[in-house]
Amino acid sequence: MTRPFTGFHMLGLTVAFFAVVVGVNMVMATLATRTFGGTVVENSYVASQRFNQWLDKARAQSALGWVVNANRRGDRVHLTLSGLDRAAVDALAIHPLGRLPAMRLHFERISLREYRSREPLPAGRWRLEIHLRRGSEAKDFVAELSA
Known about the structure:
By secondary structure, the chain is an alpha+beta fold. It folds into 2 domains: 1-36; 51-145, Sandwich (Immunoglobulin-like). It contains 2 helices and 7 strands, in the order ααβββββββ. The chain has helices at residues 7-35, 44-64; strands spanning 67-73, 76-82, 88-94, 103-109, 114-117, 126-134, 137-145.
């Protein structure tokens, strides 16, 4: 003996269907906001107009032969420089989602080519805009840090 399909069955199926749809949407929205890395540029059209200038600047900087490796050791940022000694180093740490304010980092030399930030950097994802100066030469680097 089978039971007839009633309005309550249809109501149950409809509620279950929409519960699944809303649940999946909430999970996807949560994952999207937690993993979004932020904007790369504010206006892609304006950025495309400056692209060749950026390439020229990058070529000129690459000709200097300077290389920077950035990592975290505890709550401090450590930089290892290659291709130059005794540079003036500073950086701006930008939280990609803007949840925390940008921080200016100042560095002290701990060895010939190694530098450590004086200020602690809170845990999380950060984009470092590193500026090196030696005499009249200057070079900018961008590094991504996480954890």
